[in-house]
Amino acid sequence: MSKDERLVKQITPKTEDFSRWYTEVIQKTELADYAPMKGMMVIRPYGYAIWENIQRLLDRRIKATGHVNAYFPLFIPESFLQKEAEHVQGFSPEVAWVTVGGKEELEERLAVRPTSEAIIGPMYSRWIKSWRDLPVLINQWANIVRWEKVTRPFLRTTEFLWQEGHTCHETAEEAEDETLRILAMYKEFVETELAIPVIAGQKTLREKFAGAQMTYAIEALMSDGKALQMGTSHNLGQHFSKAFDIKFEDRNQTLQYVWQTSWGMTTRLVGAVIMAHGDDSGLRLPPRVAPVQAVIVPISIGNWRESVLPAARTAEDALKSAGVRVRLDAREEFTPGWKFAEYEMRGVPVRIEVGPRDVKAGQAVLVRRDTGTKETVALDALPTRLLGLLGEIQATLFREALAFREANTHGARTYEEFTATVETRRGFVKSYWCGGDACEEKIKNETMATIRVIPLETEARPERAVCVCCGKEAKALAYFARAY
Q1: Of 95, 167, 241, 377, which residue is 20 to 30 A from 178 by alpha carbon distance?
Q2: What is the pTM of this model?
Q3: Tens digit of each residue's pLDDT (9 = 90 or more) over 404-418
Q4: Which residues contact 203 (CB under 8 A, 6 or more apart)?
Q5: What is the three-class DSSP state of 383?
Q6: Is domain 294-392 given the CATH code 3.40.50.800 in the classification?
Q7: What's the fold here for domain 11-277?
Q8: Buried b (16+ CB within 10 A) or exposed e, 291-310
């Protein structure tokens, strides 16, 4: 490939065509590529490195709450999947089936897991006998297959990666506490590590997980004004324990069904990072999950290999020792300007420029990806200043995303105001809802907006709150939005 063919190419502006911008960013920054099979993607090293950082940071939190990792089979017997009627009905349109193994037709079809309740349940029924065996707190990192009709890299693909927790408890109260504890963990994780503000709340019964008693979720607003579900936590009640006969002898020596939860986050988080923070020049990665937190670009002037490169290598070693994920780009076939554009597009949080004059002055120039601002720092102070700067960038990205969400969250009291807001203004619409299926369905059919969550955090309620759709007494304040 020639140098000209590898030059950084312009990306379609977000405001011109957001969908095209999103796809171009993914391909040009080499996060992922389309697989030969429809609806599937190949996660390339740069994209997988982001996922690895997400996985590492989330796994640390999961284990800190007492959970342990395990692994369950990819294939699920059809009879297992059919044991919980609501569950199988909810997933049947998306299930991929294996009917032949080698040259022999299988006696029973095997589902390629769309989720793992139906294979984990039979194992728990073997393992759990007494209250002393509880709680069971297991998580697995796995791949999932759901035969989606409309796909988009990272956001919705036929196969994707995720973690799924599956727990069993003695009481309904313990299961509910677990469900909400995980939801809070997810919220803290996304806001701290991905710099994306989220709203935590309850899903409606129409939107809950198939087979769950109640589903909770965290929802974020992407920079095009659409909502994205970032993670879910389900209180399964005893639906699956009764279906799979998961019983235990309680403290009074009476047989009881366990109370269960399940919860998960997926590679969709990578798509969220792109859409929440990216700009017309490409990615803007939060430093905590960026594969490369800082890139050192030596200015190739004169005998730079003798005068500049040694200082750049010393800086690289110092930053690595300080725990910074740093890269030194000493390639000769590209100009510094080309490299600047390349790493800007790839969203590297900080660029470090070192030229002949900088070496003589014992300094380097730091350039922030988020704001483009520059500052000069002494080489011996570089590790300390860079660590502080990475924290500032992480905080700035969160503040920007929060300000965007607040500026694009609107209230509507009448249906006319609601429909006009959804049609002409992007973002969340906060409105009261009666709790009825008819109103929820009408709003969805007429506006393409759905109830994303009923927030857990309560807000001041007017003396007479009425449903935005039917005008009857309201049961809850809901966040509506068009969503991915």
Answers
A1: 95
A2: 0.95
A3: 999 999 999 999 999
A4: 209, 214, 215, 216, 217, 232, 451, 453, 454
A5: helix
A6: yes
A7: BirA Bifunctional Protein; domain 2 (3.30.930)
A8: bbbbbbbbbbeeebeeebbe
